[in-house]
Amino acid sequence: MTLSEVTGIAGDAGNFTVTVKEAPRYVDMEKCIACGACTEKCPKKVDSEYDAATGKRKAIFVKYAQAVPLKYQIDAENCIRLKKPGACGFCEKVCDAGAINFNDTEKIHSINVGAVILSPGFEAYDPKPAQVWGYGDFPNVITSLQLERYLSASGPTEGHLVRPSDGKPVNKVAFLQCVGSRDENLCNNGYCSSVCCMYAIKEAVIAKDHVPGLATSIFYMDMRTHGKEFDRYMDRAKNEVGVRFVRCKVNGVEPAGSTGDLRISYVNEQGRQLEEYYDLVVLSVGLQTSKETMALADIAGISLTADKFAATSDFAPVTTSREGIFTCGTFSGPKDIPQSVVEGSAAAAAVSEVLAPARHQLSTEATFPEELDVANEDPRLGVFVCHCGSNIAGVVDVAAVEEYAKSLPNVVYVERNLFSCSQDTQDMIVKRIREQKLNRIVIAACTPRTHEPLFRETLKAAGLNEYLVEMANIRNQNAWVHSDTPAMATAKAKDLVRMAAAKVTYGTSLKNISVPITQKGLVIGGGVAGMTAALNMAEQGFDVHLIERTDVLGGNALHLKHTWSGEHIPGRLGKLIDKVIWNERIVIHKQHEVVGVEGFVGNFRTTIRSREGQTATIEHGVTVVATGGSIYSPDEYGYRRLKKVVNSIEFDKLHELKEKHVSSANTFVFIQCVGSREEDAMYCSKVCCTHSVQTAIRLKKEDPKRNIFILFRDMRTYGQREALYRQARKMGIIFINYELHGKPTVTENGQVLDVEVWDHVLHRPLKIVADMVILASAIRPKDNAKDLAKMLKVPVDGDGFFIEAHAKLRPVDFSTDGMFVAGLAHYPKPMEESVAQALAASSRAATLLSKMAVSLDAIKAIVDEKNCDGCALCVDVCPYKAITLMDRGDESGGKIVAVNVAKCKGCGLCMGTCPKRGVYVAGFTMKQISSQIQAALAV
Amino acid sequence: MLDNNKIGSVMIVGGGVTGMQAALDLADSGYYVYLVEKSGAIGGAMAQLDKTFPTNDCSM
């Protein structure tokens, strides 16, 4: 439901009535074919919201080229006709589809649902009202979002970085961090927006890629690159790409004469006032909750934090203050894409916990018409040539490709589409297949990687077997890479279409393979992440086995006292453990380790061994890896050698026990980044800055006379944690910045410790006489993670953390189907992120466990019994261990190979290796491939 | 409330990357989903981004 807003939520968890107001689109979605004729004729130009006002759109517009739904809309505020009846109306005149409806009206819907998820997102801070750094006054001061649009191929300058004031190329660009973040004066956003440091680095790297020789400088307070692989990215940006980082306080941006250049004045770390000149200044704007979203919170009746984000608990990070209403994404605090995606899945898991009894109550399976048998028909090919807007048609002469396709053997129908993937074109293709009795289809468009599933569905809808389609990639592998040579690109497009037609001519109907799912989960690791995942799966109605290596549940959380927001961990942990123990769907295996893993999605067999050596095998459909992490034991700063040097967890215990060294101590020194962000461990442990600041605050509260120093590299109190850092500074806790090349030293001096650190503000060494030194030790992966990874056949990174399927979009899935990861095993993270990830893993698992069977595609190796002589060459090359050698079981006494279709990925290595044509891949038969090759060579 | 009075559908307010992920998971595990979006198309802020790190993948 687009152009829609929630105006009321009545009822209770399990049964809400939501009122939704749908604004008029003034374009009939059923009729609009997104041809764009209306926009072309529309005389009214306004700033494009999508382009963050760097470009223009018309009053009738589509949000962006790949928008879903790809339907035009009229902006009533700016439409001449809607403002003045009788005027303009050009769009209506040119719309052949008759889709324009100026009489469209607002509609009110009342919808009954069991739960509500609020994911309204953020708005970028607008620096205009406060004229931050001259934004709004100086045209060459832009926001980071605007730079994204300038850098984008779909942006106003098609990816060419030019100055807004005069269109001149940019040579020197400055990024100013923390605009609309960590600032209570100009914008009242005291929190850190968490994402700007990283996106600024990315934009700088990409801008340098666009403009060779571009000088980029990032002016910052602390670089907060705390996510997975972020520090490495920053390191590469600094040392390989040449992005300059300047820790400073900027105090002015002024125009340098009338050239459009800008002068930045700042105070560097040594306290010196400096000036530099730039031709473009980018403001790294923060994230904030919009007024509309605050109104939504009011309608939903949920509480917000002081920073105006949805209030949640660290142990229930997607649960709002109103039962049955959940939240995810940046509404509950600034966060990056992976964490937002994690929370999306987590919210789904939380909903499912409430609504599990009503699962499958309202959902329907998509139904398709009965499949036609085309085996005995002569091939009748239909070719659809996609313009992809101007992506293809802007380079390739698509009309010529269309004409050429008509001349190919067996081709009976050819058509061009603006976007072959749009919904209306899909419907049209179905119609054409029926009308023209087509039985093989070529789609000349983009990549099958993203779009083949869509076209397969289209064929199914027309009653054709879904494997009778072939895609010719005339965009990614042609129009995009040969944009400078359009004539040759057109010739290549013809070649690709000819090859695809040749291959699909010999295509046959194939049947997907259905594999039953064992509806049980297995969770490895009984810490907070593992227990949360197990409990959620159980509450969703699935049986779960929980494997824990030690004799207690709780993991690392057993050593923790408070989350960053101050929630008491032992209390919450105890409740969680109780729930897990008492849940009858959860079988707990303490003092057990995984020793063997077999099988595939839906059908895993895991062997576990007890401490006494007894083994058991568990059959299950999904696996969640939540093996946790451990604290790094440093060899520096006198740790282990000096009694008064302890790590933060040890200190918490001593502090709680009121141990005499702690209670009598007066001066405390915290050293940050111990074992983090160094050559061998180039990652941030994410939790230590906040932990140290929290401990320091507690010490200072107990006795304000205590001297507390925190020696840090970058303070990474990201998100709403920034409030703690602010409080600590106000309380008089002293923060001293050190660099990796000037690490502090700790030496024993009688009853006290001498801590020396190079103060590069004062340009001299600083000596602190300390009673206690607390090391913020890194989080390391568990020592057995690599062995487990090998058994599970999932990857770990150089640091030893498990690698997810996709850093952004599949943050809890492994690339192996049916396996998921959560918690510290994936990367260091605080409580609420571990819990969210665990819920997300459970949600992803439930998408499989809620089905009786999983459908695997039909592109699988098939053994030709006549030809296979059992030489077994294919057995060794198969990377998925899907092929086994067995006896033929007949009088010949010979051997033959067999393929496990559930393990086979259809890669074709076996087919390429086989000297006897004894194995082939369905959909890629020798006949299909050879005819494709012959077509390639026959010009 | 009795379990059998629960409604097997969910409303998601906001069609950005987060809302879409929640919608997909719920639809894939047996619930009917209403995805409510204020603007004319789903996609949210991520659709405005050029590329994403660390892979520099296109955001689309």
From TrEMBL, chain A:
Cofactor(s) needed = FAD
Q: Which Pfam families match?
A: Fer4, Fer4_7, Pyr_redox_2
- List, for all copies, the residue spans of the domain called 4Fe-4S ferredoxin-type: 23-52, 70-105, 859-888, 895-924
Its domain of life? Bacteria
Keywords recorded for this protein, A-Z: 4Fe-4S, FAD, Flavoprotein, Iron, Iron-sulfur, Metal-binding, Oxidoreductase
List, alphabetically, the SUPFAM superfamilies matched. Answer: 4Fe-4S ferredoxins, FAD/NAD(P)-binding domain, Nucleotide-binding domain
GO MF annotation terms: 4 iron, 4 sulfur cluster binding; metal ion binding; oxidoreductase activity
Q: Which family does it belong to?
A: Belongs to the HdrA family.
Q: What's the protein called, per UniProt?
A: Heterodisulfide reductase subunit A
TrEMBL record, chain B:
- What species is given as this protein's source? Desulfopila aestuarii DSM 18488
Q: What is this protein called?
A: FAD dependent oxidoreductase
Show the Gene3D superfamilies listed in the entry. Answer: NAD(P)-binding Rossmann-like Domain
Task: Name the source's superkingdom.
Answer: Bacteria
A Pfam family cross-referenced in the UniProt record is: FAD_oxidored
Its lineage opens with: Bacteria, Pseudomonadati, Thermodesulfobacteriota, Desulfobulbia, Desulfobulbales
